[in-house]
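Chain A, query sequence.
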Amino acid sequence: MTTPHSETVDEPAELRAPARRPSVWRGQGPAVVAVSVGGALGASARYGASLLWPTHTGGFPWTTFWVNVVGCFVIGAFMVVITEVWAAHRLVRPFFGTGVLGGFTTFSTYAVDIQRLVDTGHPRTGLAYLAATLVAALAAVWLAVTCARRVLAWRRRR
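Chain A, predicted structure.
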């Protein structure tokens, strides 16, 4: 007994169709674009904040501190909404969560700020900044998640 595929005719190479590679737009391409565009927006907002509220050399980097705390608060609330309430388009999370908020928050600048404070003779300020940012960022996420869930529970009861 033979199968339909067992009898094949060898075609010349020039007559065979080239192997098709999956389109980038069907894979990760849209997510990469969403993260890129969102990241550009978030980084621009962070840069604008640094221009509005510059930090003086040796001073506590309040702008970076508050950008990170606010960004962590927003990501906490956003994740509750996106996972527990709203069945969003598949690109919303990469655009806003990873892109906008990832570009807005700046933990690389946080590390550079700590190094600069230590290098310029302000190790206590650097240590205070290190601890305060960590505690405040985690507290902001916790507070946002807690508040968002309570608001949602309250709205469901109405």
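The mean pLDDT is 88. DSSP finds five helices and no strands in the chain.
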